Amino acid sequence: MAMEMHPFDQALDLQALSDGVWQARTHPAYANMVGPFGGITAAQALQAVLLHPQRLGEPISLTVNFCAAVADGAFEVHARPARTNRSTQHWVIELRQADATVMTATAVTALRRETWGVDEEPMPLCPPPEDCLPPAVHAPLPFTKAFEYRPVTGHWPCVWDGSGDTSLSQIWVRDQPARPLDFASLACISDIFFPRLFIRRATLVPVGTVSMTVYFHAGSAQLQRTGDGYLLGQARAQAFRNGFFDQSSQLWDRHGVLLVTTHQIVYYKQ
Amino acid sequence: MAMEMHPFDQALDLQALSDGVWQARTHPAYANMVGPFGGITAAQALQAVLLHPQRLGEPISLTVNFCAAVADGAFEVHARPARTNRSTQHWVIELRQADATVMTATAVTALRRETWGVDEEPMPLCPPPEDCLPPAVHAPLPFTKAFEYRPVTGHWPCVWDGSGDTSLSQIWVRDQPARPLDFASLACISDIFFPRLFIRRATLVPVGTVSMTVYFHAGSAQLQRTGDGYLLGQARAQAFRNGFFDQSSQLWDRHGVLLVTTHQIVYYKQ
Fold first, then answer.
1. What contacts B53, CB < 8 A, 6 or more positions away?
2. Looking at the domain covering A7-111+128-268, what would its CATH class be?
3. A235-250 pLDDT, tens per residue?
4. Mutate to test the interface with A, among B56, B63, B223, B251 (most CBs of A within 10 A)
């Protein structure tokens, strides 16, 4: 593997094993507290679709279900086109490690066409990334070094005193080192928002994303225009109850184009 | 089939074919313009999980991908527990008709526990359902007769003049005839919001949901408390672009308890 390859490209460098089956590996640059950061595993799942010779069009939606912590090392990504229509294609994906399922996933790819369109969710008014300082406190999670964070509000708490009253976060973010955006990195960055429970409650409890869905509003031409620039991310929860909370997020490019809307449901203890 | 059985229960009356495989049928009470209303198919997919003898816990999340229009008549629902953990279980579901896949889906079920919790998304201030009139104009879709609608704002347009400026809808809704809420009907009702494009643009174009995700915040005890009462639904789009738009929705019971947050991505033409 060439030294100059970006860590993200190293992690996405899947090896074909057989028809629709690839070998992937966890990457130390994307390690989380236990196992890999979910965003990188989501990106690896999507990458099997992107590499598949039968793929039609570009990603429209991706749902990944985190079944178990992935152990450091190799695992298999199985991707199967379950249905191919004239302009849309439906994918079933499964990640397997040591003969067990560690992720189930589905994706839809499609041809994008010129249509009427409008963005209804406006980018919130925030200072530009150059005016936002790097965070005063860094989350003690290895993968966070793979991203440049310029928080506007609601970043990793400085004091864990149970004092929060909103789960809202707004943050400028991009790959570190900078890297031109593509669908896989957009899937990865969709998961960079810290668990909303930490923000809302300033209390550190065990958490883990159970399921994440990403809707890609941007096509490849838009991603090229975004390049390696900062994205503005916004995340907020709607309900915390009985061990699970949701979070809904958006990613805009700095010119206010909505690239992704994404949602997840997260397990929490206590 | 007994005459007094509710149409929803008729539609959900799956017949076991073999381990993890059921036969379901489309139901005329839930017909859409072409094929069945997506909500009923989502409920039938979930029903296979609910009926499965190996099921652990209650639904937490459900993602259904609409691969093709279901033809009137019978189809198979395949449900497989891909991973069973101590308190969560991951399901892979596929609906097949005439040897082709018509829906792919995944679900997570889990044991709910008593924890700290808070609802962050408040129920919008709306007049009670008794003060809201039935809609002046009924959508010409057979399945809408299976629901009682009491719109607050943003219902089926009276005039199709391209005049909309927001995609927001707020509506009181319940099964018609009334029926106690359960997880399957909650999945079904999650899809009752008309395509946001119709609301935003007051323009009738071909549309079809591609993928829908439902997060269940309510457990069975909460559903019992809700009974057959009205739910307040709210739906809004975030972006319409290049043939696809998203919509994000919430369902509260009339006491303001958030039961479901749900999201979908919808194909549109023009």
1. none
2. mainly beta
3. 999 999 999 999 999 9
4. B63
Q: How far is CA A65 from CA A269, B158, B253, B263, in A?
A: 19, 41, 28, 16
Q: Is the CB of residue A84 less than 8 Å away from at least one CB of chain B?
A: no
Q: How many residues does chain A have?
A: 270
ipTM (interface predicted TM): 0.97
Superfamily holding B7-111+132-268:
Acyl-CoA thioesterase, double hotdog domain (2.40.160.210)
CA A124 – CA A53 distance, rounded (Å): 40
Residue of B nearest to A82 (CA): B101
The string of pLDDT tens digits covering residues B2-29 is: 568 999 999 999 999 999 999 999 999 9
For residue B270, what pLDDT is reported? Answer: 83
Taking phi over 0 as left and psi of -120 to 50 as alpha, with beta for the rest, B154 belongs to left
**Across residues B52-80, what is the average pLDDT?**
98
Contact residues, B window 6-45, toward A, CB-based 8 Å cutoff: none
Mean pLDDT, chain B, integer: 96
Q: Say yes or no for a CB contact (<8 Å) between B243 and A113.
A: yes
A236 touches chain B (CB under 8 A): yes
Count how many pairs of residues, chain A against chain B, have C-beta atoms within 8 Å.
214
Global pTM exceeds 0.95? yes
CB pair distance less than 8 Å for B121 and A63: no
- Give the chain A residue whose CA is nearest to the CA of B95: A82
Average pLDDT of A182-188?
A: 98
Cα→Cα distances A105→A237, B148, B162, Å? 23, 35, 38
